[in-house]
Amino acid sequence: ASEPPISGEYYCVMPGAHWPGKRWPVERFVEACRVCHRRTGAAAVILGTARDAESERVLQALRAVLSPVLL
Fold this sequence. Notes:
This protein is an alpha/beta fold and 71 residues long. The chain contains two helices and three strands. It has a three-stranded parallel beta sheet, with helices on one face. Helix 1 packs across helix 2.
């Protein structure tokens, strides 16, 4: 069995949304993740599919301030 990509506490973020009205700007995801990390010390796990450009944009923006994991 392989080891999971993270250990310890974490929270999941799934930025993609089918409907444009349900999408948050990347900056809001970054700020929400920064607050979660600051308050808990937990790691951000970004969820999405290979076709999910929004998850990729959030992941790239978060890399500047945290060490997120993409699943």
